[in-house]
């Protein structure tokens, strides 16, 4: 196996900045073993079927397909989540949103929370894993995404997350009130050159692209959220690294108080939140 790892790393090193890790993940997937198995049994040989499957997966990765889509799972907040091409791949930057919420709501129980555009369910399930008393609704326009998020909730044994189909607020009861609303909505402009690079080439455009320079869905959510937030309820967004100023202005113009922005792991503006009076 050691030779296969070296060979795979060489093949992937041009198109991947994690060539060795990618190779080990694919090899572990074919063997149905943890990566630790590769270290423990470096001399193990693959049978013909396993060898064929490994090289088929390697070809897909060489062509740029994300590892998460190839193996069908991605870890987020230490939760192993199923992923599919119906949803975005959960990213470490989004953990900054979870961290921000937890910092503001530390020790608070029985919070009513809404996650808009839940995708795999990553944000809602991460918050639920830390807060067993919270009542969390999570919605997505895509029924495929809803079914995937429901599977993830069951997989992670987080039954107190209520996941259902809704086009933003359309299927939420008019009298429902939330202490907290979170969202990682589409925020990329349709002309952004980054849409032709990296993993996003394989991800659903409907979960990535928004009109109005990427701000249309953020504006819509912020406007309607005022009808569903409790007094002093908070709204948290993940957004593009150049959108911090715009998102704060949107929130201020809608009557939200003291919007603030937090940087992601790379030092870029990524999370903005504010309180509704």
UniProtKB/TrEMBL annotation:
Pfam families for this protein: MTS (PF05175), PrmC_N (PF17827)
Molecular function (Gene Ontology), one example: peptide chain release factor N(5)-glutamine methyltransferase activity
PROSITE patterns, per database record: N6_MTASE (PS00092)
Every Methyltransferase small domain range: 102-195
Record's keyword terms, sorted: Methyltransferase, S-adenosyl-L-methionine, Transferase
EC number of the protein: 2.1.1.297
Residue sites binding substrate per the record: 184-187
Residue sites binding S-adenosyl-L-methionine per the record: 117-121, 140, 168, 184
Family annotation (InterPro entries): DNA_methylase_N6_adenine_CS, HemK-like, N5-glutamine_MTase, PrmC_N, RF_methyltr_PrmC, Small_mtfrase_dom
Domain Release factor glutamine methyltransferase N-terminal: 9-72
Top EC category: transferase
Catalytic activity: L-glutaminyl-[peptide chain release factor] + S-adenosyl-L-methionine = N(5)-methyl-L-glutaminyl-[peptide chain release factor] + S-adenosyl-L-homocysteine + H(+)
Biological process (GO), any one: methylation
Family listed: Belongs to the protein N5-glutamine methyltransferase family. PrmC subfamily.
Function: Methylates the class 1 translation termination release factors RF1/PrfA and RF2/PrfB on the glutamine residue of the universally conserved GGQ motif.
Protein name: Release factor glutamine methyltransferase
Native source species: Colwellia maritima
């Amino acid at each position: 196996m050691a030779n296969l790892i070296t060979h795979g790393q060489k093949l992937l090193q041009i198109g991947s900045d994690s060539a060795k890790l990618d190779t080990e993940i694919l090899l572990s997937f074919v063997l149905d073993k943890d990566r630790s198995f590769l270290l423990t049994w470096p001399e193990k040989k693959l049978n013909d079927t396993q060898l064929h499957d490994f090289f088929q997966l390697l070809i897909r990765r060489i062509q740029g397909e994300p590892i998460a889509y190839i193996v069908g799972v991605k870890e987020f907040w230490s939760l192993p989540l199923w992923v599919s091409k119906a949803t975005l791949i959960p990213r470490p930057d989004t953990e900054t949103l979870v961290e921000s919420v937890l910092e503001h709501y530390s020790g608070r129980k029985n919070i009513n929370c809404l996650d808009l555009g839940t995708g795999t369910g990553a944000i809602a399930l991460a918050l639920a894993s830390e807060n067993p008393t919270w009542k969390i609704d999570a919605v997505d326009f895509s029924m495929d995404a809803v079914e995937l998020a429901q599977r993830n909730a069951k997989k992670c044994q987080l039954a107190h997350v209520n996941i259902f189909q809704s086009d933003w607020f359309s299927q939420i009861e008019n009298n429902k009130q939330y202490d907290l609303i979170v969202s990682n909505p589409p925020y990329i402009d349709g002309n952004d050159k980054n849409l032709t690079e990296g993993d996003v080439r394989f991800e659903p455009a409907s979960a990535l692209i928004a009109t109005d320079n990427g701000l249309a869905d953020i504006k819509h959510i912020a406007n309607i959220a005022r009808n569903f937030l409790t007094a002093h309820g908070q709204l948290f967004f993940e957004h593009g690294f150049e959108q911090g100023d715009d998102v704060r202005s949107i929130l201020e113009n809608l009557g939200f108080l003291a919007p603030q922005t937090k940087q992601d792991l790379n030092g870029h503006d990524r999370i903005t939140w504010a309180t509704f009076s």
